[in-house]
Amino acid sequence: STWGPNSMHGLWLCVLCLLVAAHAVTPRFRNATELIRLSRETRELFIHDALELREADDGSGSIGLFARAPIAPDTDVLSVPIRQMLTTVGISASGISAVLEGARPLLPDALAVYLLHLRDSAQYGVLAVPERIKLYLGSLPSANEIDVPILWPESELRCINGSAWGKLAASQRDMAEREYGRVFNRLFSSSPYLFPADSAAFDFEHFLWARAVVMTRGFHIEDAETNLDTRALVPLMDFANTAPNALVNTIERIAHGRLILKTTAPLAPGDELTV
């Protein structure tokens, strides 16, 4: 065969397709950026103007919050009202509080069940879900993007079978399976309208995903003034990635009914905000 202009044209088309695919905006990223836009527009949630959401530079595909202009130490960069969070306390004001009381899940699992309920409601309209919550739910990582033992596929678990990590993964999964059976059998029988047993939205794998989200993205909210002590999923705040202690550049505090993230070190353009 000969190498000519047509071959070169085809090569450039292939390169262009690869570049487009590499920079395609995922639904998760689109929902996250829309949530930030809405937050800035309504001022319900505060995010500093010098922060932007983008992919990390390490090629991992993870997204985080980065400075696009210098940010001084002791600057409030994120602020979220407690009433705008998904909390174990907030469940009491929801339509599933009585149902959950009967099932008596552990507190983190109660938040996981609430998360699944909200996601199902947002998708099928069983109950009205605010737009900001819909966007937040759409910005959460998939099971493939969360690296915790209970979500590792069978192929990976087989490779570490018998090791300390393998035993930990098996133990966590067994514990989750027992809790899932205990809680959801009660939910399926007592409230089939809210928790239909034949819905894939409430199967064991989705429960594991919700449990992992609460485990990896949840914040412990403790406020002595209001005697509040709860686990919470915090829109916007959980876009900030964790880092080793020496690299953390923020500190959390509760004031005036809000969780506030304040810088403890200067951030130069391109620096990532870490918790």
Shape: globular
Q: Segments where pLDDT lies below 50 for 5+ residues? A: 15-23
Largest sheet: 4 strands, antiparallel
* Span between termini: 57 Å
- Overall radius of gyration: 22 Å
Residues in helix, %: 40-55%
Quaternary class: single chain
**Helix segment tally:** 8
Structural class given helices, strands, pairing? Answer: alpha+beta
* Widest sheet, order of strands: 1-4-9-8
- The strand count comes to 9
Q: What's the SSE pattern?
A: HHEEEEEHHHHHHEEEE
- β content, as a range? 15-25%
Mean pLDDT: 84
Question: Would you give an account of this structure?
Answer:
By secondary structure, this protein is of the alpha+beta class. The chain has eight helices and nine strands. The strands form three sheets. Strands 1-4-9-8 form a four-stranded antiparallel sheet. It has a three-stranded antiparallel sheet with strand order 5-7-6, with helices on one face. Strands 2-3 form a two-stranded antiparallel ribbon. A hairpin with a 2-residue loop joins β8 and β9. The protein is globular, with a radius of gyration of 22 Å. The relative contact order is 0.17. About 3% of the residues have low confidence.
Q: What's a concise summary of this model?
A:
The chain is α+β, with helices and mostly antiparallel strands. The protein is 42% helix and 16% strand. The relative contact order is 0.17.
